[in-house]
Amino acid sequence: QQGYSESMRKRAAEMYVDGGNLRRIARHLKVAPRTVALWVTDAAEALPSAPMPEEVTQAEMDELFTFIGDKKTESTF
To answer: Model pTM?
Structure first.
């Protein structure tokens, strides 16, 4: 890698994780928004895969399922 320091790349990724948008981060660091997007993508790809359980013993349903199951299909007027 060349150009910008690793600490600057890490700072950009941290700012993004903290809720900053790409343009604001780019203005703050004085780089192009596309550059920040590439740094964030690189940081995300470097993360390890999320652990997956071998067996699921319990699942939780979302309340949206209940709403759809009880949704009125006819007019209520």
So the answer is: 0.64
